[in-house]
Design brief:
Distance between the termini: 181 Å
Shape: rod-shaped
Order of helices and strands: HHHEEEEEHEEEHHHEEEEEEEEHH
Number of helices: 9
Radius of gyration: 69 Å
Length: 434
């Protein structure tokens, strides 16, 4: 009967054991466990992420911080790891590999293909281990609880805790409940005279508490006085009653040892501090990168300005050289033009001089020819006169011979021949005179 009672209060006492699995030694074991229980973990910033798995290879990824759900796909790799991601991410970049460290109750999320990062996160239900025996852990938990409060759970389940049991209980455990203060499920941590409310390991408020003369736990919410009556059993309940409410209201709660809570709080704060340092280092690295980039850009700007100035100087020098060369070329062309004009003038003078010399020579030659022609004409005229004289003489002789021809026919041929010779000589004289 006692064992049966312990089983009945199993959910209330060991809510954080809901993910335990007696033996996870194969891919199929891990697949069955994930489908049956899902998976929740704490992000480095303290927010919670969770996943539920379906046998058809689909999963639902829940971002509680943004209150947003996404449909993912998933596959088992081996007994200690699986892969999952949004279908579009898988198609474009690849999977996120989730590796479960059973000994440390951690998940290593390998997202190098997605964003180049590997993140280690704490499993929210920290007993996710393939070496945990739930029945033994339950027995141990119950024995420790009964030992600390000095009363059996079977006796406690019948009535609310008295002052002594309440002091022992709140000194050893934190209480987890939704107290309707608009913060959702929170954790109450009771110190000597103060309680602190935590949400995702972050302190959100605090207040005073004390016991009344009748032994009732009185919790103060600012100016509001609340009476708490804690009852453990199949369901763990707290009756919270304001001052003027005769009945109050029952709130179900879970609890956890302060030792475990403080360990998880330290782990969270350490991770938060580590994340803060990482972010600060990333910020410093990013600032250094920005400064280096700024220096590089400034140096590039200086180099570009220097190069531009050198280019400007080079272009100015090239312009000056080009102007100098153009002026020299202009001077050379002007000099060539002057030389050509001078040469042309000299050539013109030479040609004019040659022309004058040729004209002079021609005049002299003409004068010479005129003189020669005159001399030749004179000679021809003298010869003509001489020939005319001879012809006249021969004519006279011919006439005389004609007289004889008429008298002597035998001389007729001789006279004709002589006449012909005289005629030819006269023609020759006429041509020479012309």
């Amino acid at each position: 009967m006692k064992i049966l009672f312990k089983i009945l209060i199993f959910v209330g006492i060991l809510i954080n054991f809901s993910f335990a699995e007696a033996d996870i030694s194969s891919k199929e074991d891990l697949k069955k466990h994930l489908i049956a229980n899902g998976l929740s973990w704490f992000q480095p910033n303290g927010t919670i992420r969770s996943m539920t798995f379906s046998p058809n290879g689909k999963a639902v990824y829940n971002n509680q911080e943004l209150n947003r759900k996404q449909e993912w796909i998933w596959e088992i790799i081996d007994s200690k790891s699986f892969k999952a991601a949004h279908p579009k991410i898988v198609e474009q970049k690849g999977w996120v590999i989730f590796k479960i460290n059973f000994d440390r109750n951690e998940i290593i999320a390998d997202g190098k293909k997605i964003n180049g990062q590997i993140t280690t996160v704490k499993i929210k239900d920290s007993n996710f281990s393939n070496n945990v025996n739930p029945a033994k852990e339950l027995n141990k938990k119950i024995i420790n609880l009964e030992k600390k409060i000095g009363t059996s759970l079977s006796a406690l389940s019948k009535k609310s805790l008295n002052k002594k049991d309440t002091i022992k209980f709140i000194s050893e455990y934190v209480l987890i409940l939704e107290d309707e203060r608009s913060d959702g499920k929170v954790t109450y941590f009771f110190n000597d005279k103060e309680y602190i409310r935590y949400k995702n390991f972050k302190k959100i408020s605090s207040g005073a508490w004390r016991f009344t003369k009748t032994g009732t736990l009185r919790v103060f919410n600012n100016d509001i006085k609340l009476s708490w009556k804690i009852k453990l059993g199949k369901e763990n309940n707290i009756n919270i009653k304001p001052k003027f409410d005769p009945i109050g209201k029952l709130y179900q709660f879970d609890y956890q040892t302060k030792k475990n809570f403080l360990k998880e709080l330290d782990d969270f704060n350490n991770k938060k501090e580590a994340e803060k340092k990482r972010l600060e280092q990333e910020k410093l690295d990013a600032q250094k990168k920005i400064d280096d980039e700024k220096k590089r850009l400034v140096q590039e700007k200086l180099d570009a300005q220097k190069k531009a100035e050198e280019e400007k100087k080079r272009l100015v020098q090239e312009k000056l050289d080009a102007q100098k060369k153009a002026e020299e070329e202009k001077k050379r062309l002007e000099q060539e033009k002057l030389d050509a004009q001078k040469k042309a003038e000299e050539e013109k003078k030479r040609l004019e001089l040659e022309k004058l010399d040729a004209q002079k020579k021609a005049d002299e030659e003409k004068a010479k020819m005129v003189k020669e022609m005159a001399e030749q004409k004179r000679k021809l005229e003298e010869e003509k006169a001489k020939l005319e004289k001879q012809i006249a003489e021969q004519k006279r002789k011919l006439e005389e011979e004609k007289l004889f021809y008429d008298l002597e026919p035998k001389y007729k041929k001789n006279v004709k021949r002589k006449c012909l010779m005289i005629y030819m000589r006269l023609e020759h004289l006429n041509i020479s005179s012309a």
